[in-house]
Amino acid sequence: MSRTALVVVDMLNTYEHADAEVLTRNVERTLPAMRRLLDRAAEEDVLTIYVNDNFGSWTSNREELVQQVTK
Fold first, then answer.
1. In terms of residue numbers, what domain contains 32?
2. Is the pTM here over 0.85, yes or no?
């Protein structure tokens, strides 16, 4: 049994805040490395856990979050 997990924190975001432009640039720079980590975790069957503050609503799921941030 593997004791390894990949934890992805606060990557779903609407970017509707004052520092969104700076944050967006930083995220764009880190996305290739994040993609490689996610792909490697999937290839090696490593548990991937997504953690997000969900804008104060704790009842939605990943699909609902993705819909909200891509509007």
1. 5-69
2. no
